[in-house]
Write a structure and sequence with these properties.
Number of strands: 15
Number of domains: 1
CATH topology: TIM Barrel
Strand content: 5-15%
Shape: globular
Largest sheet: 7 strands, parallel
Radius of gyration: 20 Å
CATH class: Alpha Beta
Number of helices: 14
CATH architecture: Alpha-Beta Barrel
Strand order of the largest sheet: 3-10-11-12-13-14-15
Structural class: alpha/beta
Helix content: 25-40%
Oligomer: single chain
Order of helices and strands: HEHEHEEEEEEEHHEHHHEHEHEHEHHEH
Length: 415
């Protein structure tokens, strides 16, 4: 059974030969570059070039082929098909003094205080990383200082936030014919020359984009107190997303297994909105996009949403959700037993298999192994699980624990 077959079997709620394994197939299932450098050193992987830090915002590295093979990884980020030449990258020094490569297309400015700013194409500071910080924070909200959501939206404004800073393949403009051809050929080659199950991040965020544009506090009030303008903004976002999805599916839909959407809908203690507000404001718009994916392709709808979203899951499933990530079992109402019992026949759990906050960062390798085995036993019974830790492996995670986690996942055979 190759990787693509294994993932497809699990996603169809059948029991494969072992649980499929993910490392870095999307921007919430990966590894911080500092942790990755420590991991390469521990594994005695001596490469001429430092790792590629493709996601500057979260400081995430692409896992090398050697590491993916060693950990028996079955999935891959479609972005790995691009920027294959080292002259498309430049060297960067991380907080711990170790080195990496970052894409040359990034527009970066460093202040005299050594604060790093990530800029838009026209030079606006969208995000900042102080010298002491490990990550980039948003520092510009295009509509935050306006009294309300504006009546008219300009496309340029809707892309004026830090999370619009591209990571591959979105350095390409798929509405430019030449770059669209490069986009198609890159993913086609990845499909034909590997057996990985391919994940393509499409974003298409709605709640998050509203918060990125208005600021969290404003948008949380907008969706209750100004529903008409909120819906108008979301409809404009969906309109743009539908055009993008049509172009993506028409070009590479037959080569990829998952279209990865993003929309953090919950915090530690519950959703950011009531089920009633989700049902009225967000669900019809999710459904419109996800129905299109299902009607036009065989791709699965993969949603990344952190937090406690238990109360929203019935509506998300009804809207067309196939795959949930990162399955934040450390938040309220998200116990793995409860999720598997109530929703295990309807959705695939992509994650939830190692407590990143406590066990992976602070436990022993033995505790990591035990945690992994307990989670796979619960979430993997009868298929419906792709193994991944709960969100990204952060910079301070010991390499011994990373190794123990993937070793335990690969060796688990007690379905």
């Amino acid at each position: 059974m190759d990787s693509r077959e294994r993932v497809r079997m699990a996603v169809n709620h059948k029991t494969p030969d072992r649980v499929p394994i993910d490392l870095g197939s999307m921007r919430s299932s990966g590894i911080a570059t500092i942790a990755y450098n420590n991991l390469r050193k521990k594994l005695n992987i001596d490469k001429k070039e430092p790792p590629k830090m493709y996601d500057f915002i979260q400081q995430l590295a692409y896992p090398d082929k050697e590491v993916m093979e060693l950990f028996h990884v079955d999935t891959i980020d479609a972005g790995q098909a691009f920027l294959q030449h080292f002259d498309e990258w430049k060297q960067w020094e991380l907080n711990d003094g170790s080195k990496c490569l970052i894409p040359k297309f990034l527009n970066i400015e460093i202040s005299k205080e050594n604060t790093v700013y990530v800029l838009s194409g026209d030079g606006i500071r969208l995000g900042k990383k102080p010298k002491s910080s490990l990550y980039v924070d948003q520092c510009y909200w295009v509509y935050r200082d306006q009294e309300s959501i504006p009546d008219d939206f300009y496309d340029k404004d809707l892309d004026e936030h830090v999370w619009a800073i591209p990571s591959p393949p979105w350095h390409l403009d798929i509405f430019n014919d030449q770059q669209y051809k490069e986009f198609i050929n890159g993913i086609k080659n990845l499909y034909e020359n590997t057996s990985y199950s391919i994940v393509l991040a499409v974003g298409c965020n709605m709640f998050e984009t509203g918060a990125f544009l208005r600021g969290m506090e404003n948008f949380m009030m907008d969706m209750y107190a100004d529903k008409n303008k909120t819906k108008k903004l979301l409809d404009r976002l969906v309109e743009r997303n539908m055009v993008k999805l049509e172009r993506i599916i028409g070009g590479v839909g037959k080569y990829i297994d998952f279209l990865q959407f993003g929309d953090d809908l919950g915090g530690q203690d519950g959703p950011f909105m009531s089920p009633e507000i989700y049902r009225e404001v967000f669900k019809p718009r999710h459904k419109k996009m996800w129905d299109f994916v299902h009607e036009k392709s065989k791709c699965k709808v993969f949603l990344h949403s952190c937090g406690s979203i238990y109360k929203l899951l019935p509506d998300l499933i009804d809207a067309g959700l196939d795959v949930l990530n990162p399955v934040q079992t450390t938040s309220r109402d998200m116990e793995p037993e409860k999720l598997k019992k109530e929703f295990g026949k309807n959705i695939v759990f992509w994650g939830g298999c190692c407590n990143t906050r406590d066990v992976l960062a602070n436990g022993t390798p033995e505790k990591v192994k035990k945690d992994v085995e307990e989670r796979i036993k619960i979430l993997g019974e009868g298929g419906g699980l792709v193994f991944n830790q709960i969100h990204n492996i952060l910079a301070d995670v010991p390499p011994e624990n990373v190794i123990a986690m993937f070793k335990a996942a690969y060796n688990y055979r007690k379905y």
